[in-house]
Design goal:
38% strand; binds zinc ion; globular; 3 helices; 2,3-Dihydroxybiphenyl 1,2-Dioxygenase, domain 1; 136 residues
Amino acid sequence: MKPTHIEHIGIAVKSLEEGIKYYESVLGLKCYAIEEVREQKVKTAFFKIGQTKIELLEPTASDGSVGKFIAAKGEGIHHIAFSVEQLEEVLKEVEQKGARLIDKIPRKGAEGLHIAFLHPKSTMGVLTELCENKND
Ligand code: ZN
């Protein structure tokens, strides 16, 4: 596996509105998309900084993974996403090397990316997302 760059950093927030206000007025970034991802029970807001994005995640239900994360740990960095090619092969490879897969098969994430998560128990506590952009 050879990630090309950090695709995005996912940050859990209680309020997308407050989050957007901070990233726009304090950090000077511009929110370019807001999208609800029903399967993951989140609303997302995106900012671009170089090749990398910041993805704010507001839970739409308390029983989703981001809702549970905020209840347990509060707001903060939720996951890091690495951009890879040939995600299916990469998943087989990292599993062979001992990483625990949350998704054995890639699923659809925000922005039409194909994504899969590695379990934080096998990645030193960092929820790790691997994603492939087939739109390019
Ligand atoms: Zn993500």
